[in-house]
Amino acid sequence: MDNKINDNKKEVKKKVKKNDYSLHRKMFEELISNGLPELENRDIAFKKNGKMQNDFYEEELTKLQIELIKLQNWVSDEGKRVLVIFEGRDTAGKGGVIKRLTEHMNPRGSRIVALLKPSDVEQKQWYFQRYIKQLPDSGEIVFFDRSWYNRAGVEKVMEFCTNEQYYKFMRQCNMFEQMLVDDGIILFKYYLSISKEEQKRRLDSRKIDPLKMWKLSPLDKKAIELYEDYTKAKDEMFAGTHSPYSPWIVVNANDKKRARLNIIRDILSQIHYKGKENAVAKLIKDSSIVNVYSHMLKV
């Protein structure tokens, strides 16, 4: 029996590294199915192709957004500071997740930060300086659509920074984040992961959809060509900046709807806000969709 378990663990590790979560789901399904709405209602939750049904998604999203309002009220009343960072490849769905998180929040207590490339002045500043100005104030929730991790991703791959600048960032990042957490900021770091095939499909969609064409950038053209380079940079980023006080949470975002629901569940499940005991939504996350980086390595 022990040999069989060990063999299964080895197989799961191979699957996770390949970004294939099918076996990962089967092994954890019994643990997470207790109360997870989509697993209790498979027939109405999923299409034949495995994607989530829109009606089911909208109903679950509404329930979770009600809980997000409770969370925001608690953050405001208690003077808490919450920072949620979203990273991932182009087209991974960062903006879509943030849109659903903030859709019904009071804009006076929530803020989205999506910075442009550094100005000439900012390029001569300490790298983290322009991000410090965007940190949450008392009673505020801030969402970063990309963050200081640009240096570990696109800047490294596209050679927008020197090796010296990159390694300095990697040395300083954990210390910087520990200072944020020590000062009371509630910090989340999500990395939205998508397959090469899914990224290509989404990029092709942007080329023909007039409502999405504005999202295209010169960097998008190289996204598929440099897919493996970005994978290597991501792995090095995880290895160097994952810590107990500031862990990376990896999201299988090939199905946008499932990714959005489970990210919201994950945030809500980790904060003890007022009214949580009477939640109108199940706050159990699907561990085949959202998982802590270190847990993925240990399965």
Explain this structure.
This protein has helices at residues 2-17, 22-32, 37-40, 42-45, 54-78, 94-102, 120-123, 129-132, 154-157, 163-182, 196-208, 227-241, 256-270, 293-298, and strands spanning 81-88, 110-113, 140-145, 185-193, 248-252, 290-292. It has 299 residues and is an alpha/beta fold. It has a single domain (2-298), classed as Rossmann fold, CATH 3.40.50. A 6-stranded mixed sheet has the order 2-3-1-4-5-6, sandwiched between helices.
Describe the structure using short key phrases.
single chain; 299 residues; alpha/beta; Rossmann fold; six-stranded mixed β-sheet; 14 helices; globular; disordered N terminus
Summarize the structure.
With 299 residues, the protein is of the alpha/beta class. The chain has 14 helices and 6 strands. It has helices spanning 2-17, 22-32, 37-40, 42-45, 54-78, 94-102, 120-123, 129-132, 154-157, 163-182, 196-208, 227-241, 256-270, 293-298; strands at residues 81-88, 110-113, 140-145, 185-193, 248-252, 290-292.
